[in-house]
Amino acid sequence: MAEQLVAILKNQGADFTFAITTATIPTIQPREILVCLEVTGFCGTDLSLARGHLGSCNTILGHEGIGRIVAVGAMCEAKAAVVGQRVGIGWIRDACGACPNCMSAGAGETRCTTQVFSGRDVAGTLARYAVVPERYLVPLPEEGPSELLAPIMCAGVTAYKALKVANVTPGSWIGVSGAAGGVGSLAVQYAKAMGYRTVAIDGGGPQRRAICLEAGADVYLDYEEAEPDLRTNLLRATGGDLCAAVLVCAGAAAAYEDALPCLAYFGVLVAVGIPPPTSKVSFHPLTLIDYGIRFVGSITGDRIDVLEAVQFVIRGLVKPRTVLIDLIDLNHYAGQVDQLDGKLVVRLGDVSQR
Fold first, then answer.
1. Among 50, 46, 45, which residue's Cα sits nearest to residue 13?
2. Beta partners for 247?
3. Contact criterion met (CB below 8 Å) for 26 and 1
4. Do the Cβ atoms of 25 and 1 come closer than 8 Å?
5. Domains of the chain
6. Which of 168, 165, 196 has its CA nearest to residue 299?
7. Spatial distance between the Cα atoms of 188 and 179, rounded to a whole number of angstroms
8. Per DSSP, which regions of the chain are E strands?
9. DSSP sequence for 77-114
């Protein structure tokens, strides 16, 4: 039987590793699609899965894949289900389309009660081939390099969706906490492209500051050097303005606590970053009452959000910073995803070679 190159997760936990090996190319059911992948991103969620922080997972991780259809199930009827069609594979691999959440307005499929996640519930994209259900196919335009589109399938669309969820007037100040990270730096770029004034909040020295300013931040605030506090520094930097919204992309309880005082009246705090399960965020509800502040959680976007987010890349308004590697080098880079200067993107081979 034909085989493919894959990365198999071994020893899930603190000492995880990947075995780069071969495996049989999966077969498809009548309503499934077989995709030959060119590249895939490897993000912080993959790292958390590998370390066991998010429970059990599939041995093949990955959920930011870009490739082309190479085989179509006998009962597939979708217009895009044709050999050669360029497609993307994100965190959500399948949604039922029938539960109350899927049927609700506002991208309910992202909270489908029976949704299936790439790399957690089914084999992910750290393989040459992946199987996609016809009903959750994500066709992509031909424009744009695959290595730049891969990060949009999770990190990019997550950042873009968070800005849509914030729903504040263009021209307003928007803060991004964790702005030098994979999601945060893309949130800064999208915010700038969408007409917002951006405040990048991060720490860790001049390198983090450079990443944020390169992404288009109007203001950079280092939370480690904020004296007497972050709010005072924000008011000084913006000429007296607070933020209409803050996207907390950092996975730390302190990031949420520091963001709250930075919000203006009727401001919105958008929760994106996931602190460790044992972390607790502490605040007094009087701040919410006095200022009319709203808290809202934002998860990854749906298929429409993906297509919208991709257009920013195609038009040159958003350009992810990437670190491009081959699959055989994954073990060297996987554990340091959070320290890299860009999104880790893994080459899986030339799609023309089958």
1. 50
2. 176, 270
3. no
4. yes
5. 3-154+301-347 (3.90.180.10), 156-297 (3.40.50.720)
6. 165
7. 7
8. 3-10, 17-24, 32-42, 65-72, 86-89, 92-94, 116-117, 129-133, 173-177, 197-202, 219-222, 243-248, 263-271, 294-297, 322-326, 343-347
9. --TT-STT-EEEE-SEEE--S-SHHHHSTTTGGGG-TT
Confidence at residue 337, expressed as pLDDT on a 0 to 100 scale: 87
- Per the listing, tokens 């950092």 go with 250
The dihedral built from the CA positions of residue 11, 14, 19 and 20, taken in this order, carries a sign that is positive
The distance from CA 319 to its chain's CA centroid, rounded to whole angstroms, is 14
Residue closest to 44 by CA, chosen among 119, 114, 95, 94: 119
Query: What pLDDT, on a 0 to 100 scale, did the predictor assign at position 176?
Result: 98
Local structure of residue 75 (DSSP, 8 states): T
Please check whether residue 179 is in contact with residue 215, taking contact to mean a CB–CB distance below 8 angstroms: yes
Count other C-beta atoms under 10 Å from residue 113's C-beta.
12
DSSP-derived letter for residue 328 is G
Strands (E), 114-259: 116-117, 129-133, 173-177, 197-202, 219-222, 243-248
How many other CB atoms are found less than 10 A from the CB of residue 82?
Answer: 12
- For residue 226, count CB atoms less than 10 angstroms from its CB and return exposed for 0-12, middle for 13-18, buried for 19 or more: middle
Query: Would you call 154 exposed, middle or buried from its count of C-beta atoms within 10 A (0-12, 13-18, 19+)?
Result: buried
Q: How confident is the model at residue 104 (pLDDT cuts 50, 70, 90)?
A: confident
Mean per-residue pLDDT over the chain, rounded: 94
Q: Please give the Cα distance from 260 to 270 (Å, whole number).
A: 10
Print burial letters for 327-343: b (CB count within 10 Å at least 16), e (below 16): beebeeebbebeeeeeb
Contact 245, 172 (CB under 8 A): yes
Strands 197-202 and 173-177: parallel
Model confidence pTM above 0.70 = yes
Please check the confidence at residue 95 and state whether its pLDDT lies above 60: yes
Give me 72's structure tokens. 């179509």
Residue type, 170: P
> Tens digits of per-residue pLDDT, 146-183?
999 999 999 999 999 999 999 999 999 999 999 999 99
pLDDT, residue 1, reads 63
CA distance from start to end of the chain: 14
